[in-house]
Amino acid sequence: MADELVLYTNPQSRGRIARWMLEEVSQPYKTEVLDYASSMKAPAYLAINPMGKVPALRHGDAVVTETAAICAYLADAFPQAKLAPPPGHRLRAPYYRWLFFGAGPVEAATSNKALGFVVPPDRERMIGYGNFTQVMNALEAAVSRGNYLVGDSFTAADVYVGSQIGFGMMFGTMEKRPAFEQYWRRISARPALARAKQLDDAKAAELKRAAG
Prior knowledge:
- By secondary structure, the chain is of the alpha+beta class.
- Helices cover 51% and strands 8% of the residues.
- Helix 1 packs parallel to helix 3, helix 1 runs antiparallel to helix 6 and helix 1 crosses helix 8 (191-211).
- It starts with a strand and ends with a helix.
C-alpha cells in the first residue's frame, strides 16, 4: 500500500516513544519487532537504517529514522491530529526549540550521566550542552511555564521530551524534581500512551517467554 505505515521497533527501546506518537495520530500501522543481536543488524534492516538501530518508520516509500524526527514527521503528515502548530505559525518556534533541545542537549547530557561521564569544567565550552545541571535547569523552566511545552496545546514535543523525562526519572538519569513529576503525571495520563504501553508491554512479555 502506498501510504502504509510500518514501525520498526523493539519494546525495550526508544521505539516506545514512536509508538506513543503513532497512537496519538490514530492512524492504522503495522509493527515489525526486531531483535538487537540479529534482525536489527541484518542487511534487510540496514537498508532501512544503516545505523542498525530502532525505531524507524516507513510511510509508503518514505523512511524516517531518529525518534524526534519520527514524532515531527507524523505530526506534519497527519495535521488533523493537531500535534504541531501549523507551518508558519509563531508557535512553531518553541515547538522546534524543545524538540531539538530534547534530541540534542537532553539526550547527550542524560546519556553521559548514565555512562558516568562528567564534562570537565574547562571543557564545557566545547560540548553542546555545557553541563548536566544547566540542561536540567533549562528543562525544568520549560515544563514549569504551563501545562505543555508549546502554548496551551499538547504537541509532538510533549511526546518526545515528556518521554525523556519519564524514562529519565525511571532509570535515574534525571532528578525527580517536582516540576518534572507534575509534568509527567499530567501528560502520562493520555489514553494514547496507555494504549501504546499496553502493546509494548505485551510484546516485551511475549519476547521474554520466547527467550525462555
